[in-house]
Amino acid sequence: MLPKPQLNPASEVPLYHQLYRHFTELIQSGSLARGDRLPATRELAGLLGLNRTTVSAAYELLESEGLISGQVGRGSFVTGVENAREGGLNWEAILGWSGTQAVPALATSNQNIISFAMSRPSEHLFPIAEFRASCQEVMSGPDIAGILQLGSPGGYEPLRQYLLEGARREGVARPGDDLIITSGCQQALDIVRRVLVRTADKVALEDPVYPGLKNLFREAGADLIGISVRADGLDVEYLERVLAKDRPKILVLTSSFQNPTGSTLNLEARESILRQARKAGTVIIENDIYGQLRYQGDALPTIKQLDDAGGTILLRSFSKISFPGLRVGWAVAPRAVIARMLEAKHLSDLHSDQFSQAVLLRFAASGRLEAHRSHVLEAGAEQLKAVLAACADYLPQGTEFTRPEGGMNVWVRLPEPLDALELLTRAQREGTEYLPGRYFAVRRPELGTLRLSFAGLGPEEIRKGVMILGQIFKSELDRLRRSWSREPTPAMV
Amino acid sequence: MLPKPQLNPASEVPLYHQLYRHFTELIQSGSLARGDRLPATRELAGLLGLNRTTVSAAYELLESEGLISGQVGRGSFVTGVENAREGGLNWEAILGWSGTQAVPALATSNQNIISFAMSRPSEHLFPIAEFRASCQEVMSGPDIAGILQLGSPGGYEPLRQYLLEGARREGVARPGDDLIITSGCQQALDIVRRVLVRTADKVALEDPVYPGLKNLFREAGADLIGISVRADGLDVEYLERVLAKDRPKILVLTSSFQNPTGSTLNLEARESILRQARKAGTVIIENDIYGQLRYQGDALPTIKQLDDAGGTILLRSFSKISFPGLRVGWAVAPRAVIARMLEAKHLSDLHSDQFSQAVLLRFAASGRLEAHRSHVLEAGAEQLKAVLAACADYLPQGTEFTRPEGGMNVWVRLPEPLDALELLTRAQREGTEYLPGRYFAVRRPELGTLRLSFAGLGPEEIRKGVMILGQIFKSELDRLRRSWSREPTPAMV
After folding, report:
1. b or e along A161-199 (b: 16 or more beta carbons within 10 Å of the residue's beta carbon)?
2. Which fold has domain A128-366?
3. What pTM, to 2 d.p., does this model score?
4. What pLDDT score was predicted for residue B101?
5. Of B138, B157, B180, B327, which to mutate for an interface test with A (greatest number of A Cβ within 10 Å)?
6. Would you call B145 and A126 a contact, using CB atoms and an 8 Å cutoff?
């Protein structure tokens, strides 16, 4: 009989990592020997009162370090410490604890699952013929040798000029502004972070928020201030109090169709936040990755367009409106910021892939991008209608959800005491999945929340998927309520 | 008459930035008003005893911030502070001082200049037809929608598997190792740095070294320990003393054809360094970007291949052996390190461009890469012969230079008191250029050193370029020696 691990749910170190350490010690001390079988994940989860995904995550980590080996249908076996090579380094000590949350295993690549897990466009909509034509034009163009040669940190100059002129026409780039091309919006965020954020700098950001954003600032040692986004949008009043009181160095906002909530700031909020940020000396980073994907309602100016004082950095990308596999995004900012971003970009990866930049320039300048966007907007309107109707029709009474007018995401808050993470495995078994809300939390996670990313699915799939979810949530709610009512009433003493 | 700036050559802040600050203050205080003309760069340089490039760099920075405006043939004029928009942020305070050295303006893109400045392949050798064929195959392949869709941080899986299998066959990947694809070697370095290096960690690296490497670790606040590379190679004895005494966390080495010196570690040195690093618990990062470009002599195993204990991380790239404009490199390392690099890659840019990865996979798997490499090796042998012969024939007596057997760079040390930076402008005027050695220095820059990157040029250009340089260096040496001998001998007292 193995010793029961001492797990501390209140610790900073997640449970799966505590469990991983427990087994590592047993293997290193010889309590578990080569060939020993580990308990099945389900069994151990029951024994320790843990979620099965926690146990699986621990086992995956053990396997990735070569300490155990899983055999399909047979379970996991200790392969021992001989994989830790003689004289080897103690990598765990060298690497330290990364602090990154483990995300549950997703089944996205399984064709039979209706996955609401990824905020990305549908590949069924990809205009492959138009992509090929753009590729052909670049391949046979006179510039091809230069495109394949080492380029400049600012980006492929013809694309950079094209984007800059567009940004100027739109009023997004002001006199004194410049533009840098990055490998998608994620790199734009990373580079802005690199240039602006030092340890303990105050960074205000939406809560919940896209994990790739909060983890980036957390890795940099920033002091994160989460501003609640509820079903009716960002808590602007609270944000303005934070700006006045804490004067954060940076405020990161997704003004339109925020990920994960889908919420959008109205014009009045944009103007008011801009005024307060200016007073506080706070730099606004406006992540406008979804802004081009409005399916209903009137377009709004970006905060960058409203900003006469040059305190906003705007981030955009081709990823959500064309091909995410080609990594091309950009930032528009005052020249002094772009100059510094060029240095950071140079250190990050010299420059972004030039062939993809050249192909996307052809794709955009030929009008193909705009034609594709109309198709995407049409499809998006259908998808949005389907997901909102299905949420209203199928989710249990008491569920709240956001009503975005564009983008890729709807945010759902289930009635208490449902836990979206606990129900994920069951959803996957029944043919659908989503991302539990806790992965997006900056401060306290709300266990009942989840994100439905609908842009990758057709209206029928969306309806079917939400229907399955509704059934799972309702039946679990019934079960929990029944079990409560069955609990014996304690004797009054 | 304007006040003379108080410049401090011993300061950490470079002279050009001190000069920039001086003018900023004059403009902000109103001492210089809108429309005032600044002294010509040549004139001011003479007045202050500065290099003209220093003055130009200061003016460029002033112009980039909208404080002055240059008019061709007329000079630079103050445009004033009204460009600093009302209510705007104080970007200089927010951004702080970047610490990055300004590199002199290069004329590389000028077709008429013989440029030894860039360590990159010749685009005349690019196999464009083979690139197009590889592109066609990917474009019309069955995978294309998946390639254009969001991918995984580890890289395009078929390419990742292809590279991993190759690395295993070669003995570069050991059992327990894994591979991650990055956007070129620069990003591999950046991600390794992100995962391994914290403020004040000791990092040993070659001195001189590629600036993109030292700046990366410097930005991270590492404590850099420079290990001298002289004409006869890395000072292995000193390195081993550093390993034993300082036990640095990381040792970064380019074992073959180091940039900028072209020097290569022999087998004995590799084995001995590996032993000492293991004893010291030091992680070796082996930057093997030029290893495939040996034009003479016998191939050597990489340190990674010699390392039984799993303490080495190997970095490679397609950039130097095919198309640098496609940003694809990779790292091979123990699984625990790769797992952490995946997280950092995800935060950096989600994943590298998938179309380029797929095209390079076709280019490699079809045998086209290997065929191209034979051409490059043939051309490289000619280039190397030409540059070494030209250095021997044309450079002044007393010049030392390295004799690499591959790669792209020769390192030259001119006789004292020649200063390679001072002579650069003259070289550019006479139709050639190079990078002064001081940009590669970790500790004390040697003013007489310079890097000749020969891979972008044909043998005739190489001979002509080195001949021009030889004439400039010789005539300057004569001039300096004449001026010394003319100096009055002080009276003995």
Report:
1. ebbbeebeeeebbbebbbbbbbbbbbbbbbbbbbbbbee
2. Aspartate Aminotransferase; domain 2 (3.40.640)
3. 0.84
4. 67
5. B327
6. yes
